[in-house]
Amino acid sequence: METRDPGTSRFIRDAMAQEMLDPATEQALAIAWRDRRDEAALHRLITAYGRLAISVATRFRRYGMPLDDLIQQGNLGLMRAAEKYDPENGARFSTYAAWWIRASMQDYVMRNWSVVRTATNANQKKLFFHLRKTLARLDDGATRSEALSATVARELDVPEAQVEIMLGRMAGQDMSLDVPQSGGEAGGEGGRDWVDALEDTDVDTEAHVLDRLETERRRAALYRAVRTLPAREHRIIAERHLQDEPRTLAEIGAEMGISKERVRQLEDRAMTRITSQLRHREAAAMPA
Questions:
Q1: Each residue's pLDDT tens digit in the chain (288 positions)?
Q2: What's the fold here for domain 205-285?
Q3: Topology of 6-112 in CATH?
């Protein structure tokens, strides 16, 4: 049996004892929050419908999630509903909030039902939350002219391939990487743990640091070389090679009062100077 946090039990008792709001009061509170950011109105609106979050949470317990966490997610959905609700659209806040509460809990269940991400689009969400109910409704003992996955796909109006994937995921169980592959105790001599079979694709830390330091050294050398250029060449290199959006030869020429061809010549000369300096520095840095 699930052990309930005392704070959650107290919250449930308090929520169930809250007043029921009539439509006029509900709308007045929503308008006060929307127009004046009246926090007292927001608090009264949310606490009045805490029972709604509790009611939805109890239905989501069949997915094996703690009631405490589900109620917390429901309250988050309730707060999002209060933030987005338009009190003049004709719908009751309770109706609008119920959608946000369910959506918040659905997201939580899908994030935590398995360590493997289960649903990422609308069809997969539909499958996750309606697959078991659909399977229970179908008469598995009857003779079919189509596969089970095809029947479910037709019932839920989703691609059959996604049904097959979801059936496989929901039929499997998460495994600890510390479980031995074959025989023996975890970490013992009788078998290698699954975690030992995983390939480490990360870049070697030492090599990564050395590469980064070398890149920074080369960049610093480049900027030092650029700073030694004559003023016009420095400006051209900065505008052409050190900006997020490089300027054209024509644009630079127009600003400097010289032709586009002259800008190109100065750029070529500047690049020759930079290359020469970098080669000289590299040679000087090499051990004798």
A1: 455 566 678 888 888 888 889 999 999 999 999 999 999 999 999 999 999 999 988 888 877 788 888 888 888 889 988 988 888 888 889 888 888 888 888 778 767 755 444 445 566 666 666 556 666 666 544 444 456 667 777 777 777 776 666 665 555 554 554 556 555 444 444 556 555 555 555 555 566 666 667 667 777 777 788 888 898 998 898 888 777 778 889 999 999 999 999 999 999 998 888 888 878 877 776 665
A2: Arc Repressor Mutant, subunit A (1.10.10)
A3: Four Helix Bundle (Hemerythrin (Met), subunit A) (1.20.120)
- Separation of CA 264 from chain center: 47
Q: What is the pTM of this model?
A: 0.44
Q: At residue 219, what is the residue type?
A: R
In this structure, what token pair is assigned to residue 257?
Answer: 């009062």
Q: Where are the domains of the chain?
A: 6-112, 122-171, 205-285
Neighbouring CB atoms inside 10 A of 122's CB total: 9
- The DSSP output letter for 180 is B
